[in-house]
């Protein structure tokens, strides 16, 4: 049976473009047995998609050596044009309430001018 959870999407399929606008970043931690162990695992980048009705997605990026960090957004109104590595993957999953939500991840991203 076909289900939205069976499909994987590239960044350009989700964004209708090759770039997005990073508007915020936060860290995320490792989870062991359903509980955070407090170790920072990477950053979560919030990205606005101008070519897709300005929808906003969140992209998890493992590690800590990225061109942007949460501190990069200290100034109000800071935005950065970004593109993602070819391994970007977007997948829908079913929440506990039965609705579908989008989960996105990539290994790296690039700041564009």
Give a short synopsis of this structure.
This protein starts with 7 loop residues before the first strand and ends with a strand. The protein has 1 helix and 8 strands. It has one helix at residues 11-15; strands spanning 8-9, 20-32, 35-49, 55-62, 80-84, 89-94, 100-105, 109-111.
Structural summary, described in words:
This protein has 113 residues and is mainly β. The protein has one domain (4-111): Beta Barrel (OB fold (Dihydrolipoamide Acetyltransferase, E2P)). It is built from 1 helix and 8 strands; from the N terminus they run E-H-E-E-E-E-E-E-E. The chain has one helix at 11-15; strands spanning 8-9, 20-32, 35-49, 55-62, 80-84, 89-94, 100-105, 109-111. The protein has an 8-stranded mixed β-sheet. Strand 2 and strand 3 form a beta hairpin. The longest helix has 5 residues, at 11-15. The protein is globular. 14% of the residues are buried.
Mean pLDDT: 94
Name the structural class: mainly beta
Assign the CATH architecture. Beta Barrel
* Biggest sheet: strand arrangement: 1-6-7-4-3-2-5-8
Secondary-structure element pattern, one letter each = EHEEEEEEE
- SS strand fraction: over 45%
Radius of gyration: 15 Å
Q: What is the count of DSSP helices, taking H or I runs of 4+ residues?
A: 1
Query: In CATH's first tier, which class applies?
Result: Mainly Beta
Integer tally of domains: 1
Helix content bin: under 10%
Largest sheet: 8 strands, mixed
């Amino acid at each position: 049976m076909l289900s939205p959870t069976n499909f994987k999407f590239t960044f350009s399929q989700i964004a209708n473009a090759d770039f997005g606008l990073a508007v915020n970043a936060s860290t995320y931690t490792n989870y062991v047995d359903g509980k955070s162990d407090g170790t920072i695992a990477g950053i979560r980048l919030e990205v606005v998609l101008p070519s897709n009705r300005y929808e906003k997605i969140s992209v998890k990026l493992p590690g800590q050596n990225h061109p942007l960090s949460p501190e990069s957004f200290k100034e109000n109104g800071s935005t950065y044009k970004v593109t993602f590595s070819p391994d970007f993957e977007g997948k829908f999953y079913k929440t506990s309430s039965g609705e579908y939500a989008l989960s996105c991840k990539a290994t790296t991203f690039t700041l564009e001018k």
